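Work Package 3 (structural annotation) set out to generate three-dimensional models for the target panel prioritized at the project kickoff. During this period the team completed the workflow that converts sequence records into discrete structure tokens, so that structures can be stored uniformly alongside our sequence database. As a representative example, we reproduce one entry of 204 residues exactly as it appears in the project archive.
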Amino acid sequence: MERVPTPPVRSKTGSPTPTRPWWTRRLLAPRVLLPWILLGVAWLLELLEQLIGAGRWSLAMGPGTPWWTLFTAPFSHGGLGHLLTNSLVFVPLSYLVLIRGFKAYLAVWIGVILLEIPIWLLWPVGSHGLSGVIYGLLGYLLLIGWLERHPLALALSLTALLLYGSALPGLLPWLTPAGVSWIGHASGFAGGVVAALAVSRQQR
């Protein structure tokens, strides 16, 4: 049986309307672009800080900072090296979670920001950077396989553990280098765990 070719879509004027190839539609899909857009915001803020801010722009959350720093803190970094290190981990982990869907990815971000609130209110030292979100993504991926017990979820958990399990000591204060916010890592990881529980319950 031969496949019948689909006739071209015509505009109101009668001329064929050009359609993009399927692979360009996939590359431009929101879930493909989203991690790069978020990362682009972080890089833009850091470049502006380096060029004209000179350390005067404080977007980190901490004691006495405005409430909106809960949303800006993930995009604020302590330098280009800090941002580059986070970028190399943020993008792959983002795509691993996006395999599960946009709702799962959004749930991780919401969980991370909500779990930042106690730190913002009570912790005496400021915190910033994408590492909190990175640990949130990791926490989600490690737990979702155990909660759902189906092949895709288990494969994602195993992949995350093999590739990024070495980052887990960063959750412990005595194994975290000086100047690194272990509490930001821990709250982000907890936010990812909460997201996994919420997403798993919603799908039951």
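Residues 1-5 have pLDDT under 50 and may be disordered.
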